[in-house]
Amino acid sequence: MTPCEKDTGRHDAGRRALALLCVSLALCAAGPEDNRTDIGTVQATGTGAGATAQPAPGTAAAVAPSRQPLQAAQPTSVIGKDYIDNNVPYSENFDRIIQISPSVSNVEPTGVGLQQNFQETIRGFRYTQFNNTFDGLVLPGSIGNLAPQTGAYFLAHDIKSVSVDRGPGTASQIGYATFGGTVAVTTVDPSNTWGVNPYGTIGSWGLQLAGLRLDTGAIPQLGGTKAMIDAEHESGNGYLTGTSTLRNNVFGKAEAPIGDNTVLTVEGMYNYARTHTPYGATEHQIQTLGPNYALNYDPLSQAFTGYNVDNYYTDFDYIGIKSNFGDGWSIDDKAYTASYYHNGTSGKDVNGTTPNLTGSYYVNGIKTTLNDAVPGYASHSDFRAIGNTFALTKDTAFGQARAGLWVDYNSGSSYKTNVILSDNLLPYATKATEYAAYKTLYNTTLTTVQPYVEFAAKPLPGLTITPGLKYTFVARGLDATIISSAPSTAPSNQSWDALLPAIDAHYEIMKGWVAYAQIAEGFLAPPLNALTVPAAGANPNLKPQTTVNYQIGTTFQNDRFSLGLDAYFIQFQNYIVAQTIAGNTSYTNNGGAVFKGIEAEATVKIGGGLAMYANATANDATYDGSGFPVAQAPRSTGAIGPIFQRDNFYGSLLAKYVGPQYALDETSSTGQILHPQYPIPGFYNADLALGYKLVLPKFNDRSLALRFNLLNIFNDHSITGYIGSTAASLPLLATNPGREVIFSISAAL
């Protein structure tokens, strides 16, 4: 037995012991009813991970940009509606909202909300390794890596709050990748009063946004039913050369009481986006052509802006019912569907050195002589997900029992072909066969089933213990014709499953001061490339990524202070590393890794409407054995700045620091880490936000809100992260967008 096998055995034994402990406690826990988890009266609004009670107005927790709630039993930061309304431009998405929080790194190279961003990390976990939920429902992304496209779904104006749960949560937290945490978004609710809300934004690089929200208010003839609809149009050129975005988004929500104890909720979001998409630039190009270089205006270049275009069509819809039946019984059920349709074109080796086509090729199956023809790809991918979540709770004399089930079925298709970008996208190949021009051509399915049970007990005053057990089953199906330009010999399906125990303890030391501890397991099934053979670097024997998370922390809140401190240790097994070279992504298990660190955040009210916010983290992510750092995992983060809020005026000056990291891992042919490559120094952003709300008392208390944002005040242009690689394996990098000026106006009529 190898040392690695011995370690695996020890981890398996520990997991079995943890599972047994959780089940035993769930069966035997006794104590008074758990008021911390009492659902109380029925609410229409869906909740995601980290849902918490709102802090009292005027307290330090209420003015905090990011706060650790007293109810949380794992490290959690909540960003509320006040911060979103006062600091976040309407053009933004949830990834911008959370960047102020501890251990979060996020930079948008094209400017705020103008493009999809793939650099979001939490504690060094990449955006493909943590969970995303909206109103408690898992939002899928690409069927290949399960990460949602932040630039293709909800906009900031329709987001009420975001919770960043830096851990796997309890057993009842559903999701594809909860072990890296959960970003839980809660959408806005319809207003109880009738209203019209026009709003708009203008800013740097041609940013324009116009929106209109309409609220019906509570309709007495329909038992208090209320509804709203919000429509937005956005466009902008972006900081990076050759980039642009056009986006239309519509969001609607209705809540209908049914009797005294039941509420029906219906929600829908529909989005279209068209972008000229950047793929990063080499370090040499950044130095010689400027930090904002991405695409160019030369029709003979593979980086020509007109050749690098993407179109996205998405929707997200659900119908939910939440009911309290009395005698301690309640249910929360949601049926949902979500879709993603993408088509686009791109250069074959954007900002690389691959030459254009000169010589003899088969174009549309006909042998043709080409001279300096621009090669590229035309691609399409889509999926439609349908699913249901069901949660049942029962309050008893011994505590609250919970059981639930999440079922999700996702089907999609994808293709990618070689085309001549400079000649009407004609397909080309080096031989004349039926599928010679195709890089990929396949249909795929993904089925996820997650039942869970947990019990929240309070055996001692102030102490709540919540053990639970979740079973997860994931099955991938693949019907492929071509994978990486070769006939497919991939298996038709593959599945993985696991039992995931979790237990947390939450203790109220005194009013406003709590401590907590958690042990929980995490799981993430391999990406679609696990089935794709003979894709470049494909590995059909990939194992699921698994984690064991250990976390402790404490939170203190009173009128003047909001303080949070936590520490974590995460043992990561079967770590999967992805590398993208010339559009081909390869995956491999790189053994184990350890993520550990300390996180703190605080808000202090100074007086007169002035408060100070700060957070700081020390994050360490290294591979077992070698001790090399995990790529794209910043070693620290921090934020600091004053906040002023008095009467109808708001102002903040907040700076965020992201520590040093490496761009990528160099691996051997067997998947061993050789050494980290391309160090990226730390960088920072400083942002100013000013706002004033003009109340119009003679017009039924209607108001006009004005806001000014100055982002990246000091015009920092640091390299911020790795996007991909050229065909010659040179890294393509992103930079910090330059100084950005944004004006916004919103009227409540």
Characterise this structure.
- The model is unreliable at 1-51 (pLDDT under 50).
- 6% of the residues lie in helices and 55% in strands.
- It has a 22-stranded antiparallel barrel.
- The N and C termini lie far apart (72 Å).
- By secondary structure, it is mainly beta.
- A hairpin with a 5-residue loop joins strand 19 (399-420) and strand 20.
- 51% of the residues are buried.
- The longest helix is centred in the N-terminal third of the chain and has 26 residues, at 3-28.
List keywords for this structure.
single chain, 749 residues, mainly beta, 22-stranded antiparallel beta barrel, 5-stranded mixed beta sheet, 5 helices, 40 strands, globular, disordered N terminus
Give a quick rundown of the structure.
By secondary structure, this protein is mainly beta. The chain has 5 helices and 40 strands.
What is the residue-averaged pLDDT? 87
Q: Helix tally?
A: 5
Structural class comes to mainly beta
Gyration radius over CA: 26 Å
Which stretches are low in confidence, meaning pLDDT under 50 for 5 or more residues running? Answer: 1-51
Q: Percent range for helical residues? A: under 10%
Q: β content, as a range?
A: over 45%
**N-to-C span:** 72 Å
Shape by Cα distribution: globular
The biggest sheet amounts to:
22 strands, antiparallel, barrel
**In total, how many beta strands?**
40
